[in-house]
Amino acid sequence: MDTVLSIALGIGLSAACGFRVFVPLLIMSAAAHTGHIALSSGFKWIGTPQALIAFATATVLEVLAYYIPWLDHFLDTIATPAAVVAGIVASASVFTEISPLFRWVLALIGGGGIAGLVQGTTVLTRVKSTVFTGGLGNPVVSTAELISSAGTALLAIFFPVVCLILILAGIYFVFHKTGRLFFGRKRKSAP
Predict the structure, then answer these.
(1) How far is CA 106 from the centre of its chain?
(2) Over the chain, what HEC string results?
(3) Secondary structure of residue 27 in the 3-state scheme
(4) How many CA atoms lie within 13 A of 9 on its CB side?
(5) Integer angstrom CA distances of residue 161 from 5, 57, 69, 105
(6) What pTM does this model have?
(7) Residues 6 or more apart whose Cβ sits within 8 Å of residue 2
(8) Are the C-beta atoms of 124 and 46 separated by less than 8 Å?
(9) Within a 10 A sphere around the Cβ of 127, how many other Cβ atoms?
(10) pLDDT at position 183, please?
């Protein structure tokens, strides 16, 4: 059961990295520092006071930068690969009691994949916001992403299985909606 919980925690933190790169890392660092989560060997540094200060500084800078209209789009170009890397690190760091090979395979595919998927969705949302509101709606999108990142990270830490279920439901919804957008309505079968 510990393995399932650590996988759910890792996937949840990775999804949160797709919304904001440093917010989930800050929350994860604080949780590790206070003993709420266990970190894999080689990742104990995440729970140190130095890492907590570094993640807090990076989080403040990231959050503020997303409220500057022209800078938010530039950050999206950097944030996409950074979110994938953060998702890999976040998931690998909490996959405890898993063989190193399986830890890294799961972190690369599951953690990096979910972070990239969420980040791609946020980039598309920001582009739509810019097109339809002339950029005036982007602060609202930034606030929603911030809340989603913090909420997902906290949910992953305190209720990892619930978080994983919600993430899977969200993925289904996005792909179902996207599929209809690209392929039109489902055709009715012939009688």
Answers:
(1) 15
(2) CHHHHHHHHHHHHHHHHHHCCHHHHHHHHHHHHCCCCCCCCCCHHHHCHHHHHHHHHHHHHHHHHCCCHHHHHHHHHHHHHHHHHHHHHHHHHHCCCCCHHHHHHHHHHHHHHHHHHHHHHHHHHHHHHHHHHCCCCHHHHHHHHHHHHHHHHHHHHHCHHHHHHHHHHHHHHHHHHHHHHHHCCCCCCCC
(3) helix
(4) 25
(5) 7, 30, 36, 20
(6) 0.88
(7) 96, 97
(8) no
(9) 13
(10) 54
pLDDT tens digit sequence for 174-190: 777 666 555 555 555 55
Confidence of residue 165 (pLDDT cuts 50, 70, 90): very high
Average pLDDT, the chain: 89
In this prediction, residues 57-68 reach a mean pLDDT of 92
- What is the distance between the alpha carbons of residues 170 and 149, in angstroms, rounded to a whole number? 14
Give DSSP secondary structure letters for 89-111.
HHHHHH-TTS-HHHHHHHIIIII
Provide the pLDDT for residue 75: 82
What is the identity of the amino acid at 176? H
Question: Is the separation of the CB atoms in 32 and 46 below 8 Å?
Answer: yes
* Closest among 3, 62, 70 to 11, alpha carbons compared: 3
